[in-house]
Amino acid sequence: MPTPSSSTSPTAPAWTGVIRGMPHPGVAGDERSEPPDCGTLGARCARPEPPGTSRNHASPFGGARPCDAARLATGGNHQTAPRRIGRRTLLRTAAAACAVPYFIPTTVLGRPGHPGANDRISLGLVGAGYRARDLLAESPADLHLVAAADCDRRQIAACLAAAGQANPAVAAEDCAQYQDYREMLDQVKLDAVMVATTTHARTLICLDAMQAGLDVYAEKPLTLTIEEGQYLVRAEQQYARICQVGTQQRSIAINNFGSDLVRSGAIGKILTVKCPNFPGPRPRPALPAAPVPAEMDWDLWCNQTELTEYSDELHPGLGKWARFREYCGWLVTGWVHAFDQVQRALGTDDTGPVEIWPEEPGPDARVSLRYASGTVLKLDMPEDQGPRMGGIFVGERGKIEINRNRLASNPPDLIRDAPPPADKSEYASVSHEHIQNWVSCMRTRTLTVAPFSVGHRAMTICHLINICRELGRPLRWDPVREEFGDDAPANALRSRARRAGYELPRLG
């Protein structure tokens, strides 16, 4: 954080403003922790493709052509092998395809996938790690957890025990347990699911749930690639599902107050936004192999990625697998909260930057991104300093710093009427209002504050940063067509090859 000063110049790295919330972010000695473990996926079985039918979607690693927005719009088929679909899934998919109004009165009689105004919502959980425990602990009594799935059965037992103690009103005593999440979708009468899995498994599970007629709460990072986000947005609209991404700062009053100040022009035109320079992922190295635990289905954990040997250095724990690009974008995507906060404040939820360039070489290079408005987003602060879940907005007439549960401004009067923070810590989960928003929107069939369409745009910034670093050169991005013009190497990195049995489904 810049050293306090009396300067009010919009370009000077100085602050005289007051701070709402807890101690100023960036104070020396501020203890920080990594994001909590997002758990493991509910299992999905790999199935061999019929001979001669392989059309595995391409990436630079598979040697075939990249996806494009136009093909997505026409429902390009990425499904190569027949998918086992249960009776319940078939019925729900058929129901979702009917012409059901997206907005319905809260007095409508509840039914699966459309809970009534006073019904409890039957909830399924996919991914039962530490983050799932937090979500269940903060869930309102409207939700009734009736089933949980995880490819590591040990995690289910531990998660249900913790949830039963922290929030017994939500967790059913006889909660059904599944290793295969598809069996849960087929066999249990559900209205909605929470998906708190590994990043590389999340998109396919969300798509399966939406095709089964369920509403979805998906933890971040939402996607592994830009293409996955495009699929989620299309499915959300096509199946009229109520979806919420776990970017909970959109439900924190003090954060929204700060964003609204920026959007309303309180400090004039925004010249630059400064964010921490988060480290990117590395290719997975050779790791020491270990026997697969008896409770674990390792093939299902690997999901779309290569079926590699089990290693204790991959599972369990987000701090293990998320370091490697095969599974996640590491802290660039892990701290998507910062870029989502920027999008919210700039009013760019339906668009994104148009240029990206590295300021230096390397996998952790500082990167700058320019919006069509001229605003430049700079990742030029040390990762462990400044607003780790927000940014410093530098305008023509002052500055506003937004972090989770914290605001600072120069001039100070700007935030005089800011609401109090939701918690003392910038690292507190504080997801209760966010989950409540999802629940309320499920009843009214209206958009949440963080639908997949919005979450995809924030995640795209993360993916652009990692792609720019990987190529090591400036890029031009078309946020309307969602492509890098005629830049074939860059376009190829919008998607990846997927292992047989884990292809993205056909939408349409």
Can you put this structure into words, describing what you see?
- This protein has 508 residues and is an alpha/beta fold.
- The chain has a domain at 69-249 and 432-456: NAD(P)-binding Rossmann-like Domain (Rossmann fold), CATH 3.40.50.
- The chain is 29% helix and 14% strand.
- It is built from 15 helices and 15 strands.
- It has helices at residues 69-73, 87-97, 130-137, 153-166, 181-187, 199-211, 226-238, 253-263, 298-302, 318-321, 330-334, 336-346, 432-444, 452-471, 488-492, and strands at residues 19-20, 121-126, 143-149, 171-178, 192-195, 215-218, 243-245, 270-276, 355-358, 367-370, 376-381, 391-395, 398-403, 406-410, 475-476.
- The strands form two sheets. It has a nine-stranded mixed β-sheet, covered by helices on one side. Strands 4-3-2-5-6-7 form a six-stranded parallel β-sheet, with helices on both faces.
- It starts with 18 loop residues before the first strand and ends in a 16-residue tail after the last helix.
- The model is unreliable at 1-18, 22-85 and 87-108 (pLDDT under 50).
Quick overview:
The protein has 508 residues and is α/β, with parallel strands linked by helices. Helix content is 29%, strand content 14%.
Total DSSP helices = 15
Spatial arrangement of strands, main beta sheet? 1-14-13-12-8-11-10-9-15
Find the CATH superfamily of the domain at 69-249 and 432-456: NAD(P)-binding Rossmann-like Domain
User: Helical proportion?
Assistant: 25-40%
What characterizes the major β-sheet? 9 strands, mixed
